Structure formats: C-alpha cells, structure tokens
Amino acid sequence: VFQKWVNREISNFDYLIQLNTMAGRTYNDLAQYPVFPWILRDYTSEELDLNNPAVFRDLSKPIGVVNEKNAKTVKEKYVSFFRYENFEDPLGMIDKFHYGTHYSNAAGVMHYLIRVEPFTTLHIQLQSGRFDCADRQFHSIPATWQALMDNPNDVKELIPEFFYFPEFLENQNGFNLGQLQMSKEMVNDVVLPKWAHSPEDFIYKHRKALESEYVSAHLHEWIDLIFGYKQRGPAAVEALNVFY
After folding, report:
1. Is residue 11 part of a domain?
2. What mean pLDDT value characterizes the chain?
3. Residue 146: φ, ψ to 5°
4. pTM, whole model, 2 decimals?
5. pLDDT, tens digit, for every residue of 110-153?
6. Does residue 15 lie in a domain region?
7. Is it the case that residue 24 has pLDDT exceeding 70?
8. Which domain, by its residues, includes 171?
9. What is the DSSP string of the chain?
10. 10 within domain boundaries
C-alpha cells in the first residue's frame, strides 16, 4: 500500500483510509473511529487558492500547537502537569502528557455528526436526554478552526466525512439545535467557509485540497504523529505529541 501511495497509484484519501484500517480503526467503533487531518487553515477568504502554501495547516505539528502561541502552554503543562491540571495521582502511576483529551474520541465523532442519525440519538443519550448547549455544538467550520487555534486543550482532528459526505453539514431532519448566546442565531446547517458556496462545494474543494501537491508532499509528517514513530517515546515528547 505504501509503495502504491508513493508511486501515486492511490489517492491520499485512499491511503489514509487504509492506514486507519490497518491501525484497527473502524466505522463500527466510535472510540476507534477513522481519523483524518485538518489540512487547511484558511476558512475566511472569498476564494481558496490551493497554489498558495499559506492556506494549508502545518502538518508536521499536532493540532494543539499549530498555533505557535499554544506551544509554551503545552510544554509547561508537560513539565509540571500535576500542578497545572490539579491532577490527582497519589501513586505516581500516570505518565506525563501534553494533552488531557484526545484527537479522536466518541464524543468528538458525535459532535461532528450531530445532524445525522444514529449519531443524533447517541449525542442526546450522552447529554442525558437533550441536545448539548448550542454554543458547544458543531455549528460553523470557521468557528471550529478558530476555537482550535485559541484553545490548546481542544485537539480534535477531522473524520473522513469531511471529504465525501455533504449531508452531515445540513440539518435535513430539522432538529431544534438551540440558539447561540451571543448572536441569538438559531443553530441549523453548519456555517461554511466563505469560499464554499454549498455543502457539496465545500466537500469538492476540501477533497481537492487533500489531493493537492502541498498535502501530498507533507502528509507523511502528520502520519508520523498519528500512526508512526512520533506517537510515543522521546520523539513524541519532542514533537509535543503526548496524549493522556
């Protein structure tokens, strides 16, 4: 598979799906759901220029430190994380970590897929029988990216649906997802980047970005973090990539 990918006989999308499968990730288990990278950082321009390297996320860094200003906080947490996190570990059994949450978990999958069954029902069950407060829901792609940049504790990567499934961005079932506190706006369809004119257009351009020359040249750096040698040990510490 690796050789086929290197020879450009299979797409970046197919390679990531196969890597996820080989790593034991599956659509049948929300706790081990396939994980895909955030690949763009430009969610505000009117047009998306895939020939400009500045529109892409730095794939060599974990999502928690793509924004350079978060790196200091993350490093400090690792050095003194019991004090920093008010963490109880009387036996000293827990290894140090940079992030107390994970880039892929069941709650994150339900967060992204809240508008589509059976994930809607699973989300409601998780939230004790109701939808979570509107401000915490997945309501906007630009706002989700901005929250990641502002908060080093939010480290969610993407799910494969961001590259092929426009329906998850639409509230086709007409769920009452509540009202945002600041703007009083009702949460309905997901707010798209300005450069996307519809959910289908977003998926088309996002998939095109995944297969772009820039991502093809740098995707291996992200793979090292998630599936490769930077997952554990000294390489993970150096890359600020240690998860609880």
Report:
1. no
2. 93
3. -65, -40
4. 0.93
5. 999 999 999 999 999 999 999 999 999 999 999 999 999 999 88
6. no
7. yes
8. 29-239
9. -HHHHHTTSS-HHHHHHHHHHHTT--TT-GGG---B---B---S-SS--TT-GGGB--TTS-GGGSSTHHHHHHHHHHHTHHHHHT---TT--SPP-SBSS-SS-HHHHHHHTTTSTTHHHHHHHHTTSSPPPGGGS--BHHHHHHHHHH-TT----B-GGGGT-GGGGS-TT-----B-TTT-PBP-SPBPPTT-SSHHHHHHHHHHHHTSHHHHHHHHHHHHHHTSTTSSHHHHHHTT--B-
10. no
**Token pair 């794939």 is at which residue?**
59
- Token pair listed for 134: 């509107």
**137 located within any domain:** yes
For residue range 163-172, list pLDDT tens digits in order.
999 999 999 9
CATH number of the structural domain spanning residue 193: 1.10.1540.10
